[in-house]
Amino acid sequence: MGMQEPLDELMGHLRAALHEAEAGGGDPDELRRLVAEVDRRLNEDDSEGVVDDLRHEVTKFEASHPRLADAIGRAADALSSIGL
User: Fold this and answer.
1) What are the CB-based long-range contacts (under 8 Å, 24+) for 25-30?
2) What pLDDT digit, counting tens, does each position of 2-19 carry?
3) Integer Cα distance of 47 and 9 in angstroms
């Protein structure tokens, strides 16, 4: 498995969760910030520590977005398994 698949999957999950938060009248600002930050770091090749940061972020979303937290956790595991 290349690095692109889990990255694409991660960004897809993040964007879907952001869309849900916006549609559901929730507070999408924190999600929007997370999407932008992950996207920026991956595109700028600043991925050092991004998996650890993702795991930290997951704890913020476990109560409000359990499906997102699970998806981020799986993506972080996939990225970790390919050495990111």
Assistant:
1) 26/64, 30/60
2) 667 777 777 787 777 777
3) 16
Contacts 24+ apart (CB under 8 A), 60-66: 60/30, 61/17, 61/31, 64/26, 65/17, 65/20, 65/21, 65/31
DSSP symbol at 82? T
How many domains is the chain built from? Answer: 1
- Cα 81 to Cα 15: distance, rounded to the nearest angstrom: 23
Radius of gyration for the chain, computed over Cα atoms and rounded to the nearest angstrom: 12
Assigned token pair, 40: 């920026």
With b for 16 or more beta-carbon neighbours within 10 A and e for fewer, the 40-79 pattern comes to eebeeeebeebbebbeebbeebeeebeebbebbeebbebb
pLDDT of residue 41: 78
Half-sphere exposure of residue 54: CA atoms within 13 angstroms, side-chain side: 30
What does the block give as tokens for 16? 């879907």
